[in-house]
Structures are given as structure tokens and as C-alpha cells.
Backbone:
């Protein structure tokens, strides 16, 4: 692993050097008579089609030509140059091998281009798009040992569909095809297009699969085109079943028996332990309702399969239930392979048995994880996690996870009196693959809904300041409508924070010390006060970022309602001095929501634009005057506004530098607005660069007043002037993609600082690149894993 990473870091230097030297001509490496192929151009001639059609046809044809020329960057060919200058390696490894065969590209010569073949591609593709009388030719242009091929196409008129017929007969399968024709992709007046015809055959095949025709195939459909019966470049289409379609493909099948092997292993099959198909006489002892579960060792409760399987005895086969069943079996999380077979059991009545062969994952696992981290608040540290997982805890595919962990963050430069942080804790979670509730919950999703029960404890020590005990428990549900939409409802989410020790140094900051010039800061006291937070939370997530389209979005909305019903029933009113306790601890009452919206635009395979807007508000009322510190918002840092260190920005125009350095990193607010935009580009396979702009801030709902009646964070309250209090930063980034992780380095600087005087918040005129103190205070390096959003 060390050798591999060393090679990749050295490759960064190599790429930079090649960008300079590859301007040298690659043609000097060619042998006598060789010509470097620089690409092809397609010219579309004729007045029979529009400019828009010509442009589209030209682009599509050029994409289909082979081979592709050597890649270029800003007119240079660094990969070809790398191949040419690298020596032939003696072994299939090492830097020289990587440079020549991994990064480098073998020269593409004119001799590698089959021009007649490409000409045929142009003609065939044009005819497939309805240009039936297309003609093409080519010319080769060469100069200075470089060659380009120019293809000229005369497409003629594009044929349009004049009529679409679906041939009829009295068979059952034809009746179903007739029922599908209303949604045909073949429309009168549209151009003839072979791609659309293929899609129409697939559409019919999918429709028939939903009606029980399991053995049918799209190739059994033929679409005949007749251009002789119509004039003016028109074509008639006739959709029908091929005469040689197998009889089996024309039959509608129903489910006979459903048989499950939940402990399937291919080695056991070879040894004869499993028989497919099974002897029907031996099935009866494995019956569970309408299904048979072959599990002699009773490793799994049969009812989990009854919930996951959508096929029942006597059902007409359909592909939707077929795929739904497979996806639900996989989403149980306990099986690594799911194999499905349909075997004809009654050919006369067109029935088959459905077999599900399930290979379990490792039921129990123990994993030790270690990680290191750093952030822009001058902290670095590490974490150790020991995780135990049981994937079939009560034999019903319940997943039980237990972990213990320890973490530390050490001050690494910056403020001298910043404090180290130590965290030690344990957490457990039981995830049940169904909704456990007094009501019935039916889901036709491909994803099994889950009931999650969690319990955790954490001991946190901020050296020289305080130590806290943090207890949390939750009960809730997670379910997905489909691959894009997910719901996470915690019916109850409880957090209990109890301080163990509070040092005199920290109390001095809370209460103030006039002799030392330290004003009271009750905000810090809310960090270590006893807290009881309970209530429901709901999160909705929508994303289509895995789709191949150019524009994709991600949205996450969260609603957190703490102590609302209890506050209403008890009549709590903290502002009037009527604060209620539970077990001697005042409970928190607030409403909080947050929206995270992201938009991604893909320019091409190597460049994209990512943007994000986050807006949130947390409003305290009833039993609380303030939102608990742990539930407030923060900005700054490697995944937020990168020109400002983590948790050092805001609220509003408040200047956090007025605080002691130990507490500089504790700024929190009740309102949050953040906007980010990032342009991303791939330079080589593993090397990506970015340019970004971040803006945003946090604000308070209510001013915080100390014992002397002073506002502890002046300028922090949200007002109509909030837009003038937005911080702005920009920078550039480098991302190293090592397959198993992405190492991100972002260098950012502030452009607008909200705690400067109103007319002096834009800092461009303050930039002094030669001033080392300015660079130290304003150039922020963020090192992180993965993308910020």
C-alpha cells in the first residue's frame, strides 16, 4: 500500500512536468511513413434537412467513429508524450510502468483507422435514423506527420412514419399486445428511427412480462417497414409477432409452489444436499402458509420470507413482483447472494415453481477501525472503534450492532490556550426488518422498512474546562418509497446531558472576572447545564444523483420537535419564570427545521458544477428561552464556509475574536443560511481540481443577556439586515482519488468578513500577499476526506 501511494504522489509531479514538456512535438517519435491520427470530422451536406438536424447528426456520427485520437489538454497531448519518453519497463510495476502504460497512451496512427468501415458506419447510422438514401465519402488531409480524415455525408430526405399497424389475431398473447398499443412509442409523423423501434419492442416485452409471459423475448417482435406504399418520403410500420416464436413464449404462466433455501451454498449443491426441483412429497414438512422454507437447522424464522416474497401460489407471474421480491430479500441485509429459478411444474396448465436460493452473509463480524483527522480549527486527532455486528439476532434478520470507541483531538498550533478534547463512549442499535407498531403498515417498496432502537453513552472531557456525560436513546422507523425517496421518523429521541466537573477557569468565563477584564458570558454556561431533550424528529431525503442525466438534485429536510406535547400539558412558560422539571431537570422545548438542497450540473465526463443551499431555524418557546447548545447551528470548517475556521463564524456581525482563545471555537446560532458553489474538473484519472465560493452565517433568535444586563454577543440577533452580515470566502482545491478514499485539500481565503465595520467588510483591498502575518490569518488550508457536498 505504501509503494502504491508513493507512486501516485510522484505521479502528481510527473503530470505537472509533462504539461510543460509535452508542447514538444510528439511526431518526432514516429517512424518513417507513419502519420499521427488527430481525429475525424463529419460534414453534412444538402438542403433537405435543417441546420439543427445537421448539427445533431454530425455530433452523433462523430461519436460513433473509431478509433478515437490521443487525448489532448489545451491543445497538448501529455499522455502521448509520456508514452513516447518513458522507457520500456522490465517489470509490470513501478513508476516507469505506470508512466508508460497507466498514465501514457500509445500513439493512434492513421494506419489504425479503417476509413471504409467508418464510412459504412456513417451510412448505416444515417439509414437507421430514417435517411434511407444516404451517401458518404471521405478524404484524408495530412501535414507535418499529422493526418485528419474528413467524411462527407449527403443524407437526403428523412422518412416519416405515415401509419402504425398492430397485426391482430385471436390468441391470448395478441390480445395483450393490442392492450399495449395505446402507449406505443411509434407515432405518426415522427421520423423513422431504429432506436425507437428497438425501444418499442422492449416496451412490449416488458408489458407482456407483467402479464405472465415469462419466456417471451423482445426478439419475438418484428416491426416491418414499408416505404413503397406511400409517397413523399413516408413509411408504414407493421408490428407483429414473429412466425417462429416458440410456443412456450406465447403461454401465460402462473405460480405453483414457492420454495426457499435460506442457507444455500453452491458447494452443498455439488455434494447433493440440495435438489432443484424438489420431490413434492418431501416438501410438506417445510410448509409455512403458501410457501416452503427448506431450513432444517432453523436458522431463520419462516415469517421473514412470507413478508419479503410477493409471489403467492396461484398468482400470475409478473416482472414487477419478481424484481420486488429479489430487492426485498437483498435489503434484509443478511443475504449476500440471491438466486431465483422458475422451473415448469405443470406444462399442460402453464404453471412453474419459484425457487429462491439465498446465500447468507457472515452472520457475526468483529471489526476494529482506526482513523485520523484534522480540521481548520487547528485540531488534529484520531479515533478507535471496535464494532460487533450480528445480522440475525433473533433469527428474523434483525441486525444488532454494538460498538465502543475512543477519540481525541489535540490543539495543533493556533491559540496557545486552546484545549484538547477526549471522547469515550459506547452505542448499541437493533434494526428490525419490519414496522413494529400497534397499527398495520403495508409497503410495496423494493426496500424493507425497518424499526430502529438505539441506546448510547458518551463521556466527553474538554481538558481544563469541563467533563460531560451524554446519554441518548431513540425509537423510530426508516422506510424508502423507492431508490430516490427515504423517510426517517424517530417517534422518540431522548438526550440527557449531565456535567461531571466544571473547572474554575470555565466558571470564570461564565460568571466574569472584572479584575481580569473578563465579562460574564452566560452562553458558555448553557454548554454545561443539565439538559433533557426529548421529542420526535423526522427527516425526508430525495436524491436522483445516481442517474446518468446531466442535471441532478439532492434534498434533505429535517423537523425536530422537542418537548412540545409535555410543555403544552404542563403549561410551562420559562419567560414568566414558570419552568417545569422532569426528575429535577428542566426539559427543552423548541421547534427546529433545516433544509439542505443541492444541485449538480454535469458539463461533460470531466467537468461539473455542484451547488448547495442550507437554510435552518430553531425556535425556543414554552419551557425554554434558548435552544440547547447541542441542537444549535454552526458554520465554518472544511465542509461549510471554508475560508473560516470551524465554529468561529457568527452569530451575525458579532466579532468572536473578542472572546478568550479557549472559547473562540464555540459560536452557535438559531438561524442558519449557507450557500456554496464549486466547479470540479478532472485533470487525469486520479487528480481533480476545484474552484469554489462559499457564503453564509448564523444568527440568534433572542439576544443573550448577562447578569449585568449586557448583550453577550452584540450584533448576533437575526434582523432585516441579515444579508449584509453574510460571510463570503473563495478558494481552490486539489482532490486525490485513491479509489478507496478521496483526499481533499482546499485552500480558501475570506472575501467578506461580517464582523468588520459595515463599509469595510469586503477585504479585497486588504490583501497583502507579501505580508506573512496576513497569509497566516487569512489563508485557510482544509484537509478532509471526501467531497464537501
Residues:
Amino acid at each position: 500500500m505504501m509503494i502504491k501511494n508513493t507512486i501516485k504522489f510522484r505521479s502528481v509531479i510527473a503530470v505537472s512536468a509533462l504539461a510543460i514538456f509535452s508542447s514538444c512535438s510528439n511526431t518526432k517519435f514516429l517512424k518513417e511513413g507513419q502519420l499521427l491520427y488527430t481525429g475525424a470530422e463529419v460534414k453534412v451536406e444538402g438542403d433537405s434537412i435543417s441546420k439543427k438536424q445537421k448539427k445533431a447528426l454530425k455530433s452523433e456520427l462523430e461519436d460513433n467513429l473509431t478509433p478515437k485520437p490521443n487525448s489532448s489538454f489545451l491543445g497538448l497531448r501529455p499522455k502521448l508524450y509520456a508514452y513516447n519518453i518513458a522507457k520500456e519497463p522490465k517489470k509490470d510495476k513501478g513508476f516507469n510502468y505506470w508512466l508508460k502504460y497507466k498514465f501514457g497512451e500509445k500513439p493512434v496512427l492513421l494506419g489504425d483507422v479503417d476509413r471504409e468501415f467508418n464510412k459504412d458506419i456513417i451510412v448505416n447510422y444515417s439509414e437507421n435514423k430514417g435517411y434511407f438514401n444516404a451517401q458518404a465519402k471521405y478524404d484524408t488531409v495530412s501535414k507535418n506527420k499529422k493526418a485528419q480524415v474528413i467524411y462527407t455525408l449527403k443524407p437526403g430526405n428523412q422518412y416519416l412514419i405515415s401509419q402504425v399497424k398492430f397485426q391482430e389475431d385471436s390468441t391470448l398473447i395478441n390480445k395483450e399486445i393490442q392492450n399495449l398499443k395505446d402507449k406505443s412509442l411509434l407515432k405518426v409523423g415522427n421520423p423513422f428511427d431504429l432506436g425507437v423501434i428497438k425501444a418499442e419492442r422492449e416496451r412490449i416485452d416488458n408489458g407482456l412480462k407483467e402479464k405472465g409471459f415469462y419466456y417471451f423475448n423482445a426478439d419475438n417482435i418484428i416491426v416491418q417497414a414499408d416505404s413503397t406504399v406511400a409517397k413523399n418520403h413516408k413509411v408504414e410500420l407493421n408490428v407483429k409477432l414473429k412466425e417462429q416464436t416458440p410456443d412456450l413464449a406465447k403461454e401465460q404462466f402462473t405460480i405453483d409452489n414457492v420454495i426457499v433455501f435460506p442457507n444455500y451454498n453452491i458447494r452443498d449443491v455439488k455434494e447433493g444436499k440440495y435438489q432443484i426441483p424438489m420431490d413434492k412429497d418431501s416438501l410438506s414438512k417445510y410448509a409455512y402458509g403458501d410457501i416452503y422454507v427448506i431450513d432444517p437447522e432453523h436458522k431463520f424464522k419462516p415469517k421473514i420470507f412470507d413478508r419479503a416474497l410477493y409471489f403467492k401460489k396461484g398468482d400470475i407471474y409478473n416482472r414487477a413482483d419478481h424484481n420486488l421480491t429479489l430487492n426485498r430479500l437483498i435489503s434484509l441485509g443478511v443475504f449476500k447472494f440471491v438466486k431465483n429459478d422458475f422451473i415448469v411444474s405443470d406444462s399442460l396448465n402453464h404453471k412453474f415453481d419459484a425457487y429462491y436460493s439465498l446465500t447468507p452473509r457472515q452472520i457475526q463480524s468483529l471489526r476494529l477501525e482506526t482513523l485520523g483527522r484534522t480540521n481548520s480549527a487547528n485540531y488534529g486527532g484520531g479515533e478507535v472503534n471496535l464494532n460487533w455486528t450480528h445480522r440475525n439476532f433473533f433469527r428474523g434478520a434483525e441486525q444488532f450492532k454494538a460498538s465502543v470507541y475512543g477519540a481525541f483531538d489535540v490543539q495543533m498550533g493556533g491559540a496557545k490556550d486552546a484545549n484538547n478534547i477526549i471522547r469515550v463512549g459506547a452505542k448499541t442499535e437493533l434494526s428490525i426488518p419490519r414496522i413494529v407498531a400497534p397499527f398495520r403498515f403495508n409497503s410495496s417498496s423494493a426496500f424493507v422498512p425497518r424499526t430502529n432502537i438505539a441506546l448510547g453513552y458518551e463521556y466527553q472531557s474538554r481538558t481544563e474546562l469541563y467533563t460531560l456525560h451524554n446519554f441518548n436513546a431513540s425509537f423510530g422507523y426508516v422506510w424508502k418509497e423507492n431508490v430516490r425517496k427515504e423517510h426517517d421518523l424517530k417517534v422518540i429521541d431522548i438526550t440527557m446531558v449531565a456535567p461531571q466537573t466544571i473547572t474554575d477557569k470555565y466558571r470564570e468565563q461564565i460568571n466574569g472576572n472584572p479584575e481580569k477584564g473578563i465579562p460574564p458570558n452566560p452562553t458558555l454556561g448553557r454548554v454545561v447545564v443539565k439538559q433533557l431533550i426529548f421529542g420526535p424528529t423526522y427527516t425526508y431525503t430525495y436524491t436522483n444523483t445516481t442517474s446518468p442525466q446531466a442535471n441532478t438534485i439532492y434534498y434533505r429536510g429535517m423537523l425536530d420537535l422537542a418537548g412540545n406535547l409535555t410543555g403544552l400539558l404542563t403549561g410551562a412558560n420559562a419567560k414568566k419564570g414558570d419552568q417545569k422539571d422532569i426528575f429535577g431537570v428542566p426539559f427543552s422545548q423548541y421547534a427546529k427545521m433545516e433544509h439542505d438542497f443541492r444541485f449538480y450540473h454535469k458539463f461533460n465526463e470531466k467537468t461539473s458544477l455542484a451547488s448547495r443551499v442550507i437554510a435552518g431555524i430553531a425556535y425556543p418557546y414554552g419551557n425554554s428561552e434558548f435552544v440547547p447548545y447541542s441542537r444549535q447551528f454552526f458554520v465554518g470548517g472544511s465542509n461549510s464556509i471554508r475560508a473560516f475556521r470551524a465554529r468561529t463564524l457568527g452569530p451575525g456581525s458579532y466579532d468572536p475574536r473578542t472572546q478568550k482563545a479557549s472559547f473562540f471555537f464555540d459560536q452557535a446560532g438559531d438561524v442558519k443560511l449557507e450557500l456554496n458553489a464549486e466547479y470540479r474538473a478532472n485533470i487525469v484519472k486520479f487528480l481533480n481540481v476545484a474552484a469554489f465560493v462559499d457564503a453564509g452565517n448564523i444568527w440568534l433568535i433572542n439576544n443573550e443577556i448577562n447578569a449585568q444586563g449586557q448583550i453577550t454577543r452584540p450584533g448576533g440577533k437575526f434582523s432585516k439586515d441579515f444579508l449584509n452580515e453574510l460571510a463570503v470566502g473563495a478558494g481552490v482545491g486539489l482532490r486525490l482519488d485513491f479509489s478507496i478514499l478521496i483526499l481533499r485539500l482546499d485552500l480558501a481565503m475570506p472575501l467578506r468578513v461580517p464582523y468588520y465595520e459595515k463599509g469595510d467588510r469586503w477585504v479585497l483591498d486588504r490583501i497583502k500577499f507579501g505580508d506573512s502575518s496576513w497569509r497566516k490569518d487569512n489563508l485557510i488550508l482544509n484537509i478532509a476526506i471526501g467531497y464537501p457536498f
Q: What stands out?
A: The first strand starts at residue 36 and ends at 44.
